[in-house]
Specification:
Blueprint lengths: L1 H8 L13 H14 L6 H15 L3 H17 L3 H8 L4 H16 L6 H13 L4 H13 L3
Length: 147
Amino acid sequence: MLGFLKNLFGDDDRQPPVRDLDPYEAAAALLVEAALVDGVYANLESDMIAEILVTSFNMDATRADEVLLNGEQIAEDATDTHALTRHVKTLPQSERSSVIEGLYRVSLADGEACKYEESFIRHVASLLHIDDVTRAHARKRAELNAP
């Protein structure tokens, strides 16, 4: 019991959450989270995320790989979606819409979308203040560009 209380209130070596997170790295982390919803993070999905970063945010391939690598680490350490969307919300509306389209593209990368991926995307869209019409258009664009 005493050990539990020490752990609860005592000092530990855990790092505080990142306060100044790059919004593109936060977006990459959300894309990685979408890929992980079905329990598998395949090379196909990581390649898709890198492509999304290049095409949606006008990054060169080197920068996209760096952002993806950081995004993967952030996603691994993330405890909730709110912490990530808080940073992505600093992006312009058009880029936030591109993030939603990217989430759909990642969910369709393996050839099928599951209901959990759809639920995750709806939740993120809501947190990013993306309305249902814009989200539906993003989904249609993603479906048209699906492999």
